Amino acid sequence: MALQGALNAAAPALFAASQHLMRLGASGSVLPRSTTVSSSSGLLARGISSASSDDKKKWPSVKVKPGLRSFAAQPALDDTAMFCFQCEQTQDNKGCTTVGVCGKTPEVAGLQDLLIFSLKGLGGWAHLATQNGVEVPQNIQSFITGATFSTLTNVNFDDARFLAMLKEAEEYEAYLRAALQAKGVAAPQLPSSAELGWTGDLPHPMAYQYPGSSDMDLIRHQAKQAGVSLRRESLGATLAGLQEMLVYGLKGMAAYTHHAEALGSTDPAAYGFVNEAYAFLGSPASKDPAAVLGMCMKLGGANFGVMKMLSEGHARRFGTPTPTPVSLDPIEGKCILITGHDMHDLETLLQQTEGKGINVYTHGEMLPAHGYPGLKKYKHLVGHFGGAWYRQKIDFSAFPGAVLATTNCVLDPPKAYKGRLFTTNETGLKGVTHIGATKDYSAVIAAALAEEGFTKDNMPDPAEVAEERAEEGKLGTVTVGFGHDVVLSVAGQVVDAVKTGKLEHIFVIGGCDGSEPQRKYYDKLARLMPTNTMVLTLGCGKFRIFDQDFGMLPGTGLPRLLDMGQCNDAYSALVVATELAKVFNTDVNGLPLSLDISWFEQKAVAVLLTMLHLGVKNIRLGPRLPAFLTPDAVKQLVEAFEIKPANTADPAADLKQMMAKH
């Protein structure tokens, strides 16, 4: 109740911000307030778009049985101009226009835009079906979240996979239209492009028809029409940016929903919201900045439920995490490195490699796996290798075994390890072997056995490593497993430490990591913190500080650094903060607590919207604020929620302000 009530506390500030943004309209001019269409009322209140194709003004006669299909590789699109600003590293903090900083080509960027456009249509049909009592099959719901997830930064770079998904979306849409027709539901009236404020010649997303990969010229044209550039021109950069914030939040929430689904955890409400949000983006209500902000806050609430479901799914499958030391040093033997987020893939890999003389190491955000009883019971899960995702070209090249990428983040591989790199789930790279739904990792195992593995000759000298770590103040063993259950079990000690002055302040440092030099801010900040402070960390942002020796909180038995897990374990941090607030008879904003969050991709957008939904204020966000938000939008969100840009040039100044609760 306390968590849900926090939204009410944020409502006045949110209303003020949304009222200002609502007045901006296209190109900063004043717009008359549009008639807000309730997101629950669907798309039935407007006339059919003049751009709708004739055959979609009527119900189709064909019924397509939902099912997965495989497609041969398609020819790549010609290089074309692109515009993408969905991640923090976007070029010059404005947008990538020739090739993505992530390595995404213009053809892949265009196909991702077109897929999201198509999903707005499929989501609209799924939302309409739910409203009319027509069941949406689970594999369609799974496809919607999985396809959405595939467009997240550093997930899929394979254009053939996106062409296949566009075809599959078309088939699923036809199935839902046929199911609605069979139930006697009238064909919906769709708003026109003019009513949506769009330019270009694409029809409404629910009327869109994929032309097939044989007509690549048309696909190229449609891909350009589907991107954000035209909406920025017609709706104005502020409104278009807010719409993109909703889309990017959807990408993050869809990723977490898909992670949970892999563990056997599903929630009709989560799927329902994704469909509702896609339907909203194809309705005239999306022209109202206030309505868009409201939907963003609603997404924050829905994502909190998804993160809770994912946390509970992990605990149910693998047990509650417990504090566990993890070695950062390799041992002799054949080896496999697993990166990404999906713990069920690690479990399957451990089962298939058991007894084969292969050691398994985690990489990136798989590090928290070592804290789960159901995973650490496997003796050949021997340690962690490497750092955050952006170092993978260094880490994977140095690793003398096979590498399995389960989810983001992946990068286009060099020849040094391309032949021993494998992807699964939504990840995709051209020329890299993909492991499908069978989860048969025999090819990965064969590659590991064929490689040299760690030997005395290729392993670093232990004495030299120890000396280097001593000079840098770093550790060779780190401890993971400080989930909310563990932290709350010592809540009494934390409260006592605060009341007796032994604990002056708690910092949350985490989120996403990246390659920019400005991100050294987080390492510098941590080194400046007084010894009577504690740090909660999570996500791959932890790799800036995870191997520093923070020691124990003086006068207590509490470690100063607590690794709470993956980025989705922001849920655990929020649970801990909320429960501590109850003890101190305050809200989260009244605690001696500061959130200094680093962001990179769209999961971070979803987490940020969740924190705003819960009324959390004074969040520091860095190293740069999102490029998709205009200065005016940022100004209003800063005023409403007191979001602050991290002062990457002067971490000491930030520390002073945070210690003073600013």
Automatic annotation (TrEMBL):
Protein name per UniProt: Hydroxylamine reductase
Q: Matching Pfam families, A to Z?
A: Prismane (PF03063)
Q: Does the keyword tRNA-binding apply?
A: no
- Could you tell me which InterPro entries the record lists for this protein? HCP/CODH, Hydroxylam_reduct, Prismane-like_a/b-sand, Prismane-like_sf, Prismane_a-bundle
Gene3D superfamilies, per the entry: 1.20.1270.20, 3.40.50.2030
Q: Which NCBIfam families match?
A: hybrid_clust (TIGR01703), PRK05290.1 (NF003658)
UniProt KW Cytoplasm keyword:
yes
Q: Which UniProt keywords apply?
A: Cytoplasm, Iron, Iron-sulfur, Metal-binding, Oxidoreductase
